[in-house]
Amino acid sequence: MYSVCSVGTPPEKISSLQNPRVKQLVKLRDRRPRDVAGVFMVEGYRQIRRALEKDVTLQELYFCPDWFLGENETALIAQAKESGALLIELSKDAFAKVAYRERPDGLLALAPQWRNTLDDLKLSTEPFLLVVEAIEKPGNLGTILRSADAAGCDGVIVCDPVTDIFNPNVVRASTGVLFSVPLVVAESEQVHEWLKSKNIRTVATTPAAEKLYTETDLRGSMAVIMGSEQYGLSDFWLQNADAPVRIPMAGQADSLNVAMATIITLFEAVRQRDQ
Amino acid sequence: MYSVCSVGTPPEKISSLQNPRVKQLVKLRDRRPRDVAGVFMVEGYRQIRRALEKDVTLQELYFCPDWFLGENETALIAQAKESGALLIELSKDAFAKVAYRERPDGLLALAPQWRNTLDDLKLSTEPFLLVVEAIEKPGNLGTILRSADAAGCDGVIVCDPVTDIFNPNVVRASTGVLFSVPLVVAESEQVHEWLKSKNIRTVATTPAAEKLYTETDLRGSMAVIMGSEQYGLSDFWLQNADAPVRIPMAGQADSLNVAMATIITLFEAVRQRDQ
After folding, report:
1. B69 touching A, CB under 8 A?
2. CB-based contact (8 Å) between B255 and chain A?
3. Do residues A128 and A51 lie in contact, with contact meaning Cβ atoms separated by under 8 Å?
4. Which bin fits A199, alpha (ψ -120 to 50), beta or left (φ > 0)?
5. In chain B, N or C: fewer CB atoms in 10 Å?
6. pTM of the prediction?
7. DSSP secondary-structure letter at A11?
């Protein structure tokens, strides 16, 4: 099992900001060290609880009672220990240094990264998928994962990623849904071929479409395709999607961001599919 | 006209972090000094452009070319000056101190606060309103304003506010929609009486409702009522709303936050009303 550094048994409590574990945790905010180590940070009570609920093996759990906000932290720590996590206490200052949040809650874990492929997705008889292209902001990607979870999507496919799915802000904004929504990272062309092979129709939102999303059949085997914040859908998906649709906009042209457009489209699909 | 301090003509360029204008701008992050001064901060190109488009009188415009991100700042500054704003240049350090954003774009203006009453709302023949109760997070309130703008609401009524509508994060998250969506702050009981007097039905979302939001008539004169993040709808609105509705949830119970639930409900209303 990966350990954040190879200095053997940790001391009872780490106070030094120069401790190698503290330094390495700070590095894990960046993608490259995360990928090299094959781990990512799960910060906060809610997120860690979700990970444990989904039987994610937490490798290390850093905690600092000085930052605790509630009363259930001790039970959560015991649960993490039981599942095999190495427990390490940090001083208040050391925790503040490793925490990604401005107001930490004294809990931060390391979990192993995973890689799913398209064929790992367990599809229902009439698959309902979300495909997002090159999302830039981690907060948007996290919100989008929550939306897919709430709408009951079979999975989310992230094409041509700009944002790492293990970015601390994705974990945070997803409120731990990252651990429950099946998530695949892949290239657009590969995704398009795979969807075609499974007879899954693609519905792509773009302001240029003539048809409203509410006038389009969103039932049956179907994937909603969403473009990036800045550039919208790529030419590839504009040309290859089966049905372009648009969301009517009453106000300023940029009032809906990609996360808002996603949830509107997914819940219209839910409405149609539940009828 | 209010000025951020009474030291007369400002110098050509402020560099001192001890300058009274710099100190006062920092204070305006808090509600009380904002209310006393009757002004609020509008930070960022997009937000300031929206204010000018809506003929908001910017009183002072602080700028710092060292932080500019684009090429249109000069034109915007000229437009602000023409509309009557006092221009004040800040050094890079001074701007960083007054900026609320982590990555400022070198533009920050002061605008006068306003107070609308319910009777200021210009209602269409079949009013479509959004009422939000005690929203706690400024970012959520800003996103909710964007949603109401995109859905074409006649106005947004903020009941029993916890978050000041002039909080810098509301201005930011609203991307300037604060200047275009008619916005009223009032007490719940007063709002209920007023809606009744106008024959406007109230539709309140709560997980306890039996009926789905998609099975409920959202056409005609109607106000959507949304509760706070932590507590949901108050007993007052649960008892007094005409129709309680719920949004179906497939995933984790807390996957939808109040901003997401609001946009889902508003766009279902748009769908029904456009038929």
Report:
1. no
2. yes
3. no
4. left
5. C
6. 0.91
7. P
